[in-house]
Structure formats: C-alpha cells, structure tokens
Amino acid sequence: MRVSRAALLAICVLQGTACETKTTTSDGTAPVRKPTLSPVAPAGTMPNAMAVTFGPKPADSDGNLFPDSLNITAYLFSKPHPAPLFCAGTFHFSIYRLGQSSSVETAGGEPLREWVMSAEVAHASRSIALAGPCYEFTLSLLANHGSDALPVQSVDLVAWFEPSDASGRVWLRGVRSVQFARPEGR
Question: How many domains does the chain have?
C-alpha cells in the first residue's frame, strides 16, 4: 500500500511539471512581445494640443559656419486621445529674443523671423514617426532672402496650428529655446 501511494504521488508531481514549457530566445531571455497597433483618435476629432521636437542643433546649409536651418517635427493631438493625428490647416512658427516671445495669453515683442506653412505645404510635409502621424518642416533663416547672422545666439521658438475650419488656434504649450551658436570670433 505504501508503494502505491508513493507511486501515485510521484505520478501526480511528474504530470504537473511535464506540461510546463518555457520559451526563451537563444540568449536565454524571454521573447519580446509582439507589437500592437497604437491607438488612434476617433474620426472627426479636432486637435487641441500640439507638440514639437527638433534636432540637437541647427544645421549650416550654406557652409559659412553660421547655423541657418532647423528641422522640426510637429505633432497634433486631440486630448484625451494619446495618438497624434493629421488635420488640414496652417502651421505658424516664430523665433524671438529670449524672454520676449508671445503666447496665447500675452502679446510679445517683434519676432526675429516668422514662417507660415500653408495647408498645402503642411499636407505635403505629412510623415509617420515612431510616435505616429506628424509633420516634418525645415525652418530656414535664409528663406525669403533672410540672413543667418542673427543678433543673438539663443532664441525662443513659438508655434501654433490654425485648422482650416477656423475652429481656433492650437498653441504649442510654452516656448522652446533653440541655440544658433556662432563660431568663435564671429
């Protein structure tokens, strides 16, 4: 009787462990979860928030050692939805001397430069980044016969989006400081 109880216990223990499998990769770690689609904002939602990212430093496109081009990626959001979206409209970007920028609450000083990306330009600038739908622009100080010799080395960037349906401006929250550092001695 003792042998049969011990055998029965051994069979139960072995059966419980025999069905257990563990999948690992060649280095012994667990496999990466399969990617899932990111959530999307419902159709017809309008943006109420904007975010921008830009490269680590402006580029010098004409080789005179003065930075003159800033690559910007702009995202539009419809809070509380976490995914960015596309929307027809116009993007506005301005740079100001540090501390003199305008915002939705206050009028600022005179901008050093302004760029308006029309609805057509914005549509042509659509792209998909890791975060989702975005717009990619290059803000060039040389545009419209401009100069890359700014009177300051650091500026405040202000941006807003104006939807084509005139539902109201969507402002970038706060300002972003950008350095257009000059070479030493210039």
Answer: 1
